[in-house]
Amino acid sequence: MRSQEPGMPEPCPPAAPANLISNRKNRTNARSTSPLWRRWKRLSQSRSQPRTTRVRRPPLKNWQRKGTAQHSTPKRKPEPEPEPETKAEPSTDRKDNDTTAPDSDASPAEKAPIPSFLTKIEKIAISALFAVLALAATFAIIHFSKRVPTRSPFSEKIDYPVNGKLIEIRAASTYWRAPITSGENSDVVRRGTALIPVLKLSLHSKPCAIRVFFRDQDDIVIGDGITREISGLTELALPATAGFDEIGMHAAYRTGESEPWTVQVFEGPSRNADRKDFSKILETQISTGRR
Question: How far apart are the first and last CA of the chain?
């Protein structure tokens, strides 16, 4: 090989023969038609493209996994996470070791059974004792309530009918009741009165007037006098305009702690007649009964 003289340009490389060029073209055509070549080209193109970043989601919780299914289900609100329960320390007692562990889904009330300190015989005995005490209390109330000292309805017996000049009283009775404060048949009573005495009469008379007075244990007139005009066969219920201010006063009256009240019945020719024209035909004690 000859050395190159200085100052001379480098010689060009020899041209490739025509048959070699044609062989290279055939090789490239064969590669482009091969399936392996096509696959490798697709992979190289996909690697050259920029990759899309994926958003990593947080893992699902237990209550979210239960709600998911292969088929579409309606969405529901997330339930609050249950608070962790404090586990009781294992007991060293043999009875506790023998018992099986309670179900985790059971409530605390079901887990802790109510201790029973009484046997069946003791429970029956206590129930029988309560029944005997109740019967004894009922018997005592009934027995002693009948033995409470009460005043008789009338201190003296009156033989009916009681005849006057104008009126014949065939029957008479007295009792106590609460005053009627409303309605058409309301009573005219003193304010604060709790109970009032009432006189009920069954009588037969000529055209005349009847006048009634109620008196207390001191023989003082209670309330106002009541005057009615009557004729023929008549039944009257005449309430007083005053009475006991408290219910306890009637209890004392019933047991005889106070003297009895009385009611007086007078007859007269008319409502407007003078006081001296009225004459007394009946006086009786007021009963202790109440209606």
Answer: 159
